[in-house]
Structures are given as C-alpha cells and as structure tokens.
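[job 0412] stage=fold_complex status=start
inputs:
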Amino acid sequence: MNEAAVGVIRKTFEAYEPGSSSNVSFVNAHEEHLLVTFYVHKISQLCGHFRFPEEVEATATSYLKRFYLKNTVMDWHPKSVMLTALFLATKTTNNPISLDVYASHIPNTVASDVLDLEFLVAQSLAFEFAVWHTHRALWGIWLDIQNLPDSLPDISKTQGSIYESALIHVRAARLTDAEFMYTPSQIALACISLTAPDLAKKWLESKENIPLPENRTDIPPRPSATTLFASIEAIKSIITNAGKVPDVEAVREVDRRLRTCKNPEKVVGTKAYLARKAEAEKKAEEKKNKKAEIQKASGAADTDPFGDPLSEPVKPGLVDYDDDDDDD
Amino acid sequence: MDAVERENLDRQKRWAKEQKVGEGAYAVVYRGREFSTGRRVAIKKIKVGQFKDGLDMSAIREVKYLRELKHRNVIELLDVFSNKTNLNLVLEFLDSDLEMIIKDRSLVFLPADIKSWMAMTFRGLEFCHRNFILHRDLKPNNLLIASDGHLKIADFGLARDFADPGFKMTCQVITRWYRPPELLFGARYYSSAVDIWSVGCIFAELMLRTPYLAGESDMDQLKTIFRALGTPTEQEWPGHTKLPDYVPVGQFPKTPLRDLFTAASTDTLGLLSKCLLYEPRKRVSAAEALQHPYFYAIPHPTHPLKLPKCTTQMAPRPLGEVDGDGNVDDDVDMTGSGGTFGAGVKSGLGPGVKSGAPNNTNKGRLKRKITSPMEGADGDMSARTRSIARKLDFTKERYVKSP
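[job 0412] stage=fold_complex status=done
writing structure:
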C-alpha cells in the first residue's frame, strides 16, 4: 500500500517537475503507521476535552485506522482526517453536536475543514458505520464473570479493580491493530487475562461445556480451547508491545519529512494542484456544454412536430454518472 | 484518482438510474437497474449539501442499520455510493406499501391475509429487536410490499440501538397515530415495546381499513387511546402518573375490543390486546407474539404470493414525512417539535375510534367482511369465498376505473 502510494506520488512529482522526486525521502509504511497511531491517541485526548462517551472515542479511532487501510498520510494528513472521523463518529453513535460548536473548540479549524473530508471518510469506510466495540464485550464478560457459580457474591465490589485495569488494557488495544485480526470478545478476554489470568481461564472453561444450540446451521463451529488460548496470548503480546503512545519526537520527525513528500496534487498552491484543478474545471465545463447541447437537441426535437422519428432520442441521465439533481 | 474514489466509481457503475418515482424534502427516489443482471432496484438519492452539519442523521441511521440487517422481512440495502454531494442508497425495489393496500377499496382482506401480513411484520421486527435495534417509526406506510407479496420493514431513519439502562432517549419518535402512551407521556426510558404498540395499531387498522387511533394532536392522541381502551388505572400501569409529561385526560370506561372488532376471532383479539397493553413491560414481545395461538389457529396465513395486491401503480409518494424531525437526537430536548409528526392528516378517512364507531362508508365494508365466513372456515371454503369476494371487487374496480 505504502509502496503503491509512493509510486503514484513519485510519478506525480515527475509529471510536473521532472527530476524533482529523486531527492525526496518518502515516508515508509512503518512511519505512516506511527503517525496514524499518534493521532489515534490525539482522538482520545480530544474526546476527554469534549467529554464524549467512550463509544464515540472507540468508534472514531476505528474509523481513523480503517481510513488508512485504504489511504496514505501523504495524500491526507491524519490531523484533518482525525477531526472528520471524530465528528462523523459523534453522529453515527447518536451523540451529535453542532458542527460550529465542534469546530470552535478546536484551534485553527473551521467548519468546512471538517466537512470537506466527510464524504471521503465515509467512502473509505465503505459506509460501514457500525463498529462492535471491545469495551462493550469487556462489560459483558465482566457481568458474566460475576455470575460464575463459585464467584464471590460481592466480587464487583472487592474485585472491581480487575474491570478497571482491564479497561485500561482495552484502551491500549485501541492503539494497536488487534481489532483488524481478532474479534472484540477475544480482545476483551485477553485484556482480562492481562489483569487476572486465572479468572479469564476460569471463565473460558465455564463456557466449554455449554452445548451448542441444536439445529442451528448459522453458528460457526466453536474453536478449540487451544486455538482460543493461542489467540488470547497473541493479542496479549500485541497489546503489551504495541499498545503505547508513540514517542512525540519520532512523530515530529516523520511529520517534518511528510511536509516534503506530500502528494503535490493535494497541496494548495503547487503547480500540480493548479494543473489538476484546471483540468477538473475544464471537465466540468465540457460536461455542462454537453448537457446544454443535449438539452438543446432534445428541445429542438420537441418543438419540431415532424422531427425524424427514427433518430434515437438522447436520454440524459441514464448513464450520466455525474448526473446531478435534475431539478437543481 | 484515489483508490477510494475509484472504488466508489466502480460501485456506482453497477447501477443504472432510470426514472424518478418520488421526491421529498431530503431525498429523491429513482427506479433503477443492476447493469449485470437487469435486477430492478430503487435508488434513494439523499441531498446532503444542504445540511449545515454534513451528512444528516436520518441518512446515517438508515445506512448504519440497514448495512447490519439482512432478513427476508427487512428491506435490503444493496449498495451505497456517493456522487458529488449526494449520497445514494441502492435498495431492493418494492412495488407498494401496506398503506396503499389498506386504502385500496377494491380489495377485500380475509383474516388469513391479515394473519400473513402480521406474521411477516412480527418476523421482521423480531429480527430487528434480536439485533438490538428499535425501529421507532412503524406504520403501514413503512411496511413495503414486494412483487412476490413479501412484506419488508423499511425506513430506518429514526432507528437506534437499545440504550443502556439509565440512558435517556428522545420521546419524540413514531408517527403520532402509532405512538404508544408511554411516549406521549414523555417517557425517556423505553424499550422494544414501543414498536409493538405500533404493530398493534397496524393490526387493528388492517381489520378496520382505517387508522385505529387517529388523534389530531398529541393531547388528543391520548384521549383517543383512552376512549378506545379505557383510561389506565394504577394497577394496570403502575407508575404511569409519574411520567414526565403525565396529565390526566379524563376518565373513559373500558369497552371490550369485541364491540369494535365484531368479526375477529378470540385469538385475534387476544393478540391485539397484548400488543395494546398499557404497561410496556407486560406488552407482548415480537418473539412471544410469533408463538401466540393466533398464528397457529385456522385459517393459516395466506401464502405471500396469494395476498391481495395493489391494483394501482405506486404513485410518487412524499418522502421523509418526518422531515424536520430527522435530526431528533437523544440528548437534545425536542419538545415542541412534535407537531410535524403524522403530518398530512389523511383526508377522507374517518378515524377509527375518534367517532366511536366506523363511519358510514366503513360500515358497508365491515358488513361485507362479516358476511364472509371467517375464522374457522376450512381451507376449501375460504378459498371459494375469496374468489367470490375478489370477483365482486374486481367488478367494482372496473366500475370505478372505467371512464
């Protein structure tokens, strides 16, 4: 992904200013990842500032990470994408706030900065807005643990710290890619296991003897305990190794280099940007003319009562993908 | 071009937009086709540019929930793509809705037909509730009918997932005539039982062929409900007087459902009354309703293919009747905005309960229903009477339609 992006941007550089790409040092996949992770952490800080519920924060981080599965920081800077992802998450989780209020709380940001990328972000998410969260799974397992036959009646009071510290691991897991590889409940169990391994094991064992519902073909076969334990251990090591906020200095260094290797078509004022804009305008103009011609043609046909009945009428709108509202 | 834009264009190219079939304040619906298969689809184009807060909440809700739900009795969202500042939802194409069928005076409903629609509604709703989604806008107009007779729940613009206990939700949801009393009293904590009340109203409407509880304002709605079902007592509905917007609206005696639904079987009224229980916690759930004796008793539900079909073409219907309320959210108090609900008081139809009994035009229809042998008739018998009833109606239809 990173290589492909570098290739495209290098070509763009070359197209507008031959030879200019040779001394550009592009950011690599690892550095892209570092930068995105840093802004995942930023989301968490912003959410604290706005006092958004956990669900908003978790959704926005998933959106940001998913966005960069399909895009590169050299095209879209995570700082702007983060703001849009968070705003979109407030809406998809049913916690909407007014855009003006939102933008006014963020320095150097106007409403349009947030909105301009909204479609791009939604598209990159393939309009899959619902996210199933690990913190919900954690809460579910925690409630279930309290129901274990031999758990103490006041476990939620005496052992409440287990839940609290597991939740801290869940938040750390958000900085990692674990959610792309494992299910929310597996990650949640791993977080409990990081805090109280015996309790996690006991809970898992209590589930082993529950028979699967009969006559249900829609439930996939249950993984063996060994497979599950292996997954849990793998998640645990991901969280321990990668669940950290990146070093600010390292991020700053990447960001500084990013300024030199951004896709020139996306930087306002560069030659490439202007060229692309001119091209887009030319295209729009052509389309407009074409549409006008079609209208003229069909209008002429209408007014001529003896118009050639054999000529195929032009049907605007049938394959005209950019067809805007017919009535605006 | 970016990978994402290219992907979007590829999606867009799968679908052909044809003629416009409906338009509303926030969306335009086109008939369309899938290029590769020729399959008919509906493309709902949501105008986004006009909203100052970007993508609008009802569009987001609709996309979010329909992407998750796939069931025979829930409308299928086939694809989503954007184009300039418009969001396009590709939905399965459905010819008509239950409201059109109810209003089509040339059709006669047999009890088995009603049972079939109710079964499909409850199945779709049970699926939503099983997946922790409240619909919050059930009404005949949102129950669409496919060409093969299958009923599909549509319009998830007001849907939301179950809130955690203690989390406030807005009470300004559900079109007024289908809104349960707890919402009219301003309850901010409620459950899937709100949808069940709506289904109960639809059930009654299928029998009456006119909206059952058609209040003229939110206050009148409560009065209409109590006039029909009697004012609730503290025993029937503990704690209702403590609800935020509780106001006494007068004492009305309880009249048996049997007085209005003269032709209905005991099972029918049994299920109906369980949907219209005042105490939300006692109201039947969708899953329980599907196990109710009503669905096991004779006559068996009509096969979807054999259900009465609308004789008229789907006219461009106004979309987004709850516009303006599309943005209701759960943290903002929307009190006072409820006026737009149930917009467009349907003309020509006497409200089911308002006048105490169906008005004269309805009486004729009810009588015809009564004279047709209903519940308990064996399969053969009902098939025969049906063909007669249909025949009668077709002549009438021709009479009405011929110039």
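[job 0412] summary: Confidence is low (pLDDT under 50) at residues 300-309, 311-328 of chain A.
[job 0412] exit 0
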